[in-house]
């Protein structure tokens, strides 16, 4: 997998790391950790760090976290409950603006739509609102922006060489195992 993320002001600092590097080394010593990306990897990492007494926040651009095809409801529910138990702060519909002086500036989008009783949720105008928020962040872990890398496959392509897993499309372990199983049935 190749790492890809548009350059965000401040993301060139040594305390901004990719999730795969953190999972490999497990060496975060800072207290305040912000994880960019609320996919399965980001949320599992958030839970793991929070249970190790870190103050963890997750910033997700989508309106839902763990938006993963094939994720079983009990697994989703348990991970959400564990993150709640360990007080992981989750910001959905949020985008990162910059990282400076140990602070991460995000923009949280909210909508003020009437509820089922035709009442507005907030005392403001209807529509979309962008609320700036600053989060303490000694370490920022990026858990987004991976794309497939097929260079090795292209260089050795031939009979009985198959493209599998994240080389096709970054996903989860179950997808990689199922893909390998399907090809193994044909061999």
Please render the helix and strand layout as text.
Blueprint: E1 2-3, E2 16-18, H1 19-25, E3 32-36, H2 40-50, E4 55-59, H3 73-85, E5 89-91, E6 94-100, E7 103-112, E8 127-136, E9 139-142, E10 146-147, H4 151-156, H5 173-186
Parallel strand pairs: 2-9, 3-4, 3-9, 4-5
Antiparallel strand pairs: 1-10, 6-7, 7-8
Helix pairs in contact: 2-3
Work out the number of β strands.
Answer: 10
Compute the CA-based radius of gyration.
19 Å
The helix/strand class is alpha/beta
Strand order of the largest sheet: 2-9-3-4-5
Strand portion, in percent?
A: 25-35%
The DSSP helix count reads: 5
Report, as a whole number of angstroms, the end-to-end distance. Answer: 26 Å
Mean pLDDT: 86
User: Assembly type of the shown chains?
Assistant: single chain
- Shape estimate: globular
Descriptive report:
The chain is an alpha/beta fold and 187 residues long. Helices cover 27% and strands 27% of the residues. The chain is built from five helices and ten strands, in the order E-E-H-E-H-E-H-E-E-E-E-E-E-H-H. The chain has helices at 19-25, 40-50, 73-85, 151-156, 173-186; strands at 2-3, 16-18, 32-36, 55-59, 89-91, 94-100, 103-112, 127-136, 139-142, 146-147. The strands form three sheets. Strands 2-9-3-4-5 form a five-stranded parallel sheet. Strands 6-7-8 form a three-stranded antiparallel sheet, with no helix packed on it. Strands 1-10 form a two-stranded antiparallel sheet. Helix 3 (73-85) links the parallel strand 4 and strand 5. Helix 2 (40-50) packs parallel to helix 3. It is globular and about 60 Å long.
